[in-house]
Amino acid sequence: xxxxxxxxxxxxxxxxxxxxxxxxxxxxxxxxxxxxxxxxxxxxxxxxxxxxxxxxxxxxxxxxxxxxxxxxxxxxxxxxxxxxxxxxxxxxxxxxxxxxxxxxxxxxxxxxxxxxxxxxxxxxxxxxxxxxxxxxxxxxxxxxxxxxxxxxxxxxxxxxxxxxxxxxxxxxxxxxx
Length: 177
Known about the structure:
By secondary structure, the protein is an alpha/beta fold. 26% of the residues lie in helices and 31% in strands.
C-alpha cells in the first residue's frame, strides 16, 4: 500500500512539473523593439522578415530597431520575433528627434472609451503574420511565398473600420513574392 501511494505521488509531481514546463515554454520572452516612423506618416505599416535585400539588423542596447521607410514597408534581415515583448513607437523628424506614439489595444473597450483626443495619433491593429506558401493545385508548382511579417496602423481613430480595411488591403497588396 505504501509503495502504491509513493508511485501515485511521483506521478502527480511529474504531471505538475510537465504542466509547469509547458506553460513557461509558451510564454517565452522575445527581443523588445523600437519602431521609428517618419514624422507625419499615417496609414498601414508592414515589417517583412527574412529578406536578403532587407535593411541590416540594428540594435539600441538590447532592443531591435525597425526604421520604417516613407512608404510604410520595411524589409528586414531580422528573423521573426515571437514571444512576450514590449514595443515602442516613435515619430522621427528630419533632426532625428523622437516623439512617442501611444499603442492602443483595440480589444480593451475601457481604454477606447477614455480616449477623447481624436486628433492624436495612435498605433493600433497590430498583427503577426506567419509564413505562407501557395502552390498550384494542378501542377503542385510553388506560386508564391509570403514571409513572416508584422503589421500595424498609425492613425487618429476617427474612422477605425475604414482604417482596418485599408490595413488588410495594404498588407496583402504589398506582401507577396
